[in-house]
Every structure is written in structure tokens, then in C-alpha cells.
Amino acid sequence: MKLQTIIRDQDRLFIGDQVPEKYKSDHFISDVAKVHAVALPISTEEVAELVQYANQESLAIIARGEGTGVAGAQVPIKGDELIIDVHKMNRILELDEETMTLIVEPGVKNGDIQEYAESRGYFYPPDPGSKHSSIGGNVATNAGGMRAVKYGTTRDYVREMEVVLSDGSVVSLGSLNIKNSSGYDLKDLFIGSEGTLGITTKIKLKMLPLPQYKQSALMAFATLSDATDAVLTILKLGVDPTALELFERETIEYSEKFMNLALQSQKGQAYVLMTIDGNDNEAIIGKIALVEDMLSNDALDIIPLPNAEEEKKTWSLRDNILTALMQFTEYEMLDEVVPINKFAEMISYTKELQQKHELKVINFGHAGDGNIHTVLMKKDLDEETWKKKRKAYLDDLYEKVLELGGKPSAEHGIGLVKKSYFTKMSNQIELELMRKIKYALDPDNRLNPGKLI
Ligand SMILES: Cc1cc2nc3c(=O)[nH]c(=O)nc-3n(C[C@H](O)[C@H](O)[C@H](O)COP(=O)(O)OP(=O)(O)OC[C@H]3O[C@@H](n4cnc5c(N)ncnc54)[C@H](O)[C@@H]3O)c2cc1C
Questions:
Q1: Is the CB of 153 within 6 Å of ligand 1?
Q2: Residue 209 Cα, ligand 1 centroid: separation in angstroms?
Q3: If you average pLDDT over residues 249-259, what whole number do you get?
Q4: How many Å apart are CA 2 and CA 255, to the nearest integer?
Q5: How many A from CA of 79 to the centre of ligand 1?
Q6: Is domain 213-322 given the CATH code 1.10.3720.10 in the classification?
Q7: Ligand 1 within 6 A of CB of 409
Q8: 65 lines ligand 1 (CB under 6 A)
Q9: Is 74 touching ligand 1 by the criterion CB < 6 Å?
Q10: Cα–Cα distance between 391 and 418 in angstroms, integer?
Q11: Domain spanning 329-413: CATH 3.30.70.2740
Q12: Minimal CB count within 10 Å: which of 261, 303, 327, 441?
């Protein structure tokens, strides 16, 4: 079997030196080892044949969607890998209104799923900042996003998935049944496995009815700790926020500069941006008023955003933080998560470490679910100092995350970038179980070797 007999279109196959640069690096990793080939299949059959080819030639395989991953999981590290890029498998196949499910191929972009669902009166809640990421990648990383506090993560919306296994066989995992107590949940095992157990080729997603109304409010606080206190207050009020995001003034300034837009409030050091949705507009307005009432003494500004344009503008400032940062400095974004009652302590510790290591950090995050994106800024540090400070900072930070009962990644995955911390922080028996599962499903360690565990 030859690659050219599996992928017959020249524009869907790049061999050796033809492999485009974009496959050879990501935000963290560059100068990766030589790639054997990149193949862009358009069917499950082609994916299965590519996996069989890799077995025949003893090649490692990396599945790839849109390449927006930020954990180094989609980049080649060993040399001579076969990259199976599924982004051309991008058809929305079927909306079944009776079961409220949508069948999609793995290369469909998250934003396109959201748009398609909404155009038909449905709602697909998982909402990562990277709307251009693929659903296959979202499943492989169990992507979260802004609305996880109310609606959960990608895992909660996968009813069924078709997977090509390491030997090239094809299996369907999960089912349409809402309840299932029939054996091990293999579907859930594959979700978040970062391409180390199989390649997803079709997904049946759960849809919700589209909420009719939503409204946001922006709150400004004098200090970061006032803002984290407010998050806990809001969660305890029972207003069931759809999104509850926190960002520092220093963080949003990058977005303001990049987008040439000013946030509605310029007061204080930290902000909380909240959205509430539902089918009863009066109830939503009442909940926003309750939050205003409860925080009136603590906040410097509380600005409801009933105007859709203003709301969109504010959220776009939040959405563009990362893209904006890329224009101004090299950085490393973390993805730590701690139990919600430890959120304030964790975020304030990131600032203590800033002093200790003399390394600039800023924070933003999905405050409602305890997920912090701490951003380490290289600024004008030389490469050697940056590497030294980064390591010292991360050693301390992850020790604290562990002490608080947290995890190194809430939604981006472990990949290569967090692997050493993940293995150090994990319970060794649990880690050994994961390795046994990996071996049982992929005995030749063909699928994304060297990543995750
Ligand atoms: C600006 C920006 C904002 C972001 N915001 C968020 C956010 O809010 N929340 C969040 O969760 N993430 C966020 N991310 C991270 C990233 O977008 C997600 O991890 C996303 O799910 C990756 O999807 P992808 O299609 O780009 O996958 P890739 O980067 O191509 O791959 C990521 C991983 O998935 C595996 N994979 C991809 N497709 C398949 C498949 N079909 N079968 C098996 N394995 C597969 C790869 O092997 C790799 O391990 C952000 C990234 C950026 C750049």
C-alpha cells in the first residue's frame, strides 16, 4: 500500500519536504523533527487506510484538526510521523429534530456548529474562545469555554462518536440513550484523550433549545481580590450565570489597544463580565438587578449591557485577549483549575510568585468554574533568563495547584507542554492505570506518542 493510492488528490497529500511549515510548530514548539507526510482524508475509510498504512510502515500518527491547540499536542516530536489532518472532513451531516442531535464530521468548526444550530432554533453551548477550532479537536481536548459554568464542557454534548482505532478498525462509541448503565463508558474515555487512543471521524452532538433571551453586565472592582469575592457572591445568589469571566485591567488593556476599543468602565484593577440567559426576560432582568443590589457596596461600577451592540463589543474585548497578547509579547498561557472556594487564593498566589520570581504575570479566566488563565510574559527578558524564570515560576505554581486540590489543565489538555507537571502531580496508581489503558488500546504506541502520559 502506498500513500498516493489512499489519497489520490495531490492537494491532499504532502510528503517529506513538501510538508507546509504550519505543521511543524505551534505557539510553544518550533523546529520539530522531520515529518513523514501530512494526509488530508475526506472519509472515515481514508482515515482507516491511513492508519493501516502507518502500521505497515511503523509510523507514529498525529491527528490534527485546526491546529489551535495550546499544549503542543498536535505537533510532531519524534520524527517521521504521519499527520492525519481531518479539517477537510467538515460536513454537517444531519440534524435529527426528534432526538435533538446533530451529526457532524470532525473538521467542522465550533463556530459553524453554533451558527448552524442557532439558525434552526437550537443551541450548542460549548464556546471556546477559539471559534475556529474543530469539533474533533474540541472532543479530543474536552474543550470548555465561556459557558461551561452553566452548561458544562464538550463532554456533556457528545452522544455518540465514531473512532478509528490504532489498528485501523472503526468503532462507534456511546448511543442516543440519555441514560446508560451498560458497561464501561468508553466514549467518555476517548473524550479528552488528545489523539492518543483513536481518531474521531464522526460525532453525534446533543443540541439544546435556543434560550430566547440573554443579558450581560460588566462589573469593575478596585482590587483583584474584590473581584474574586464578587464571583463567589454571584455563584451563591443562585442566578445561574451562563458565563462569569474575570480579567485584570492590565489584561484587557492589550485587547483595548489591539482592537482600538475602550471597555465601558476604566475604573479599578479587575473586572467581572457576566451573562445570564433563559426564556423569561423579566426573570433575567430581575437577576441582574439582584446582582447589582448585592454588589453595590463592593463594585466601583456595575454596568448592565441591555444593548446588543454594546454587549457584543464588551465580549469581543474579552474574546480577543489572547490574539491581542500575541501582537505585543511572547508569553505562556496556563490553564490551571482549582476548586471554586480556592479560586481567590490561587489567583492571589500567582501575584505573590510574580514578586518572588520577578516575572510579570497577568490573569484572566473562567472564574465561574475555577479555571484561571495565568499568563507569563517574556517581555524583554533574554531567552536564557526567561527559561529559568519560567521553570522556577511553574514549579512553585503547580505545587500550589496540587496543594489546593486543583489540576494542571481545565480545558486545554496536557499535550507536551504540561506533561512533566501532570505526571508529577498525578496519583501514581491512577497514572499507571492510564498507561495500561493506553497500552491496551494502542500496544505499539502509534497514536500521538510522547504526549499526555
Ligand atoms: C485564541 C485561542 C483561544 C482559545 N480558547 C479556548 C477556550 O476558551 N477553551 C478551550 O477549551 N480551548 C481554547 N483554546 C485551545 C484550543 O482551541 C482547543 O484546545 C481546541 O479544542 C483545539 O481544537 P483544534 O481543532 O485546533 O485541534 P488541534 O490543535 O488540531 O489538536 C488538538 C489535540 O486534539 C487532537 N485531535 C484533533 N482532531 C482530532 C480528531 N479528529 N481525533 C482525535 N484527536 C484529534 C490532536 O491530536 C491534539 O492532541 C484556545 C486557543 C486559542 C489559540
A1: no
A2: 26
A3: 96
A4: 48
A5: 22
A6: no
A7: no
A8: yes
A9: yes
A10: 12
A11: yes
A12: 327
Q: Give yes or no for residue 200 CB within 6 A of ligand 1.
A: yes
C-alpha angle 18-24-27 in degrees, rounded to nearest 5: 150
Classify residue 433 by burial, with Cβ atoms within 10 Å: 0-12, 13-18, 19+: exposed
Whether the per-residue pLDDT at 296 is higher than 70: the answer is yes
Give nearest CA residue, ligand 1 atom 50: 130
> Comparing 18-27, 188-197, 401-410, which segment has the lowest mean pLDDT?
18-27
Which of helix, strand or coil describes residue 429? helix
Alpha helices in 197-342 (DSSP H): 224-237, 249-259, 281-295, 308-319, 321-328
Q: What's the CA-to-centroid distance between 129 and ligand 1, angstroms?
A: 11
Nearest CA to ligand 1 atom 34: 137
Strands 361-366, 199-206: pairing kind: unpaired
How many residues would you count in the chain?
A: 453
Domain boundaries of the chain, sorted by first residue: 3-85, 92-209, 213-322, 329-413
Q: What is the CATH number of domain 92-209?
A: 3.30.465.10
Evaluate whether 447 touches 61 at the Cβ level (below 8 Å).
Answer: yes
The average pLDDT across 423-439 equals 97
* Integer Cα distance of 286 and 263 in angstroms: 24
Q: Which value, in Å, is the radius of gyration of the alpha carbons in the chain?
A: 22
CATH 3.40.50.11540 fits 3-85, yes or no: no
By C-alpha distance, which of 67, 132, 65, 70 is closest to 373? 70
pLDDT (tens digit per residue) in 311-356: 999 999 999 998 899 888 889 999 999 999 999 999 999 999 999 9
As a whole number of angstroms, the distance between CA 355 and CA 445 comes to: 43
Mean pLDDT, range 361-388, rounded to an integer: 94
Cα distances (angstroms) measured from residue 260 to each of 176, 225, 317, 451: 47, 28, 10, 39
Among 31, 26, 39, smallest CA distance to 68 is for 26
Distance from residue 67's CA to the centre of ligand 1 (Å):
7
Cell reading at 182: 451498560
Of the candidates 73, 57, 11, 77, the one whose C-alpha atom is nearest the C-alpha of residue 38 is 11
Do 213-322 and 329-413 have matching folds? yes
Mean pLDDT of the region 243-267: 96
CA 367 to ligand 1 centroid distance, Å: 21
Q: Distance of CA 23 to CAs 28, 101, 222, Å?
A: 13, 33, 44
